[in-house]
Amino acid sequence: MNLIKSACLAVALSATTAFVAVAQDYESGLQAFEKEDYLTALQEWRPLAEEGNVEAQYYLGIIFDNGYGVEQDYKEAAHWYEKAANQGDAYAQYNLGVMFEHGEGVQQNYSRAVELYRSAADQGDAQAQNNLGWLHQNGRGVPQDYAEAVKWYRKAAEQGDTYAYTNLGFMYQQGYGVPQDDAEALNWYRTAAEQGDARAQTNLGFMYQQGDGIPQDYALAHMWYNLASANGDERAADFRSNLAKQMTPEDISRAQSMATECLNSKYENCG
């Protein structure tokens, strides 16, 4: 009996020691990663990943996906994301879903992207919820279903996903899956715009230009187009140029000052 107990204790101690060693190797890799010493992180994590450590598998995917310290390799990234995703890691499922949606490192497959996004979305991943909404909105990998799109956008928005705010605004503006409601669209666009989302800023500018659900205001429209253009929405510069033809130099100057004030206040004072 004592021999059996001693043997069991030895096994338990051995397992505990191994667990501690794995944890230490993972933490060493994480510390190196945070210091941008990616090669050291890779050296620490690869053996763990090959042994099935899900966190190490996910981070190897990140390293190859972004080319951190190595040549960017989408195929290798997908390989490691797949391993982590198969163990239920929501972040890996989301990232692999993106790769299948866009055909990066894998053959483009919207149906597979839907599966992966849904798995991550069901675990509460807001980005996956938003992307799942987009695929339902556009009928990619699933039949087009506006109501289902709104459902997932709303779940993501409830978690503060800025892109979901913008997408919900669009659905209300167009009346897709919900009753058409300019006021509700404005609310969602403004929330996203004040967080710096360029597409929301452009759409908000357009609503001010047209007077949709709000008094027409060219200066505010110009201001939002200006901000959207600075944030990378190529449509906004054209909209701003066309709108400027209908404005006086004084109004344009005022709109530019408003845009500066909006930025300087970090979107706290935007007209």
Automatic annotation (TrEMBL):
Pfam families: Sel1. It comes from the Bacteria. Residues 1-23 form the signal peptide. Keywords: Signal. InterPro entries: Mitotic_Regulator, Sel1-like, TPR-like_helical_dom_sf. This is TPR repeat.
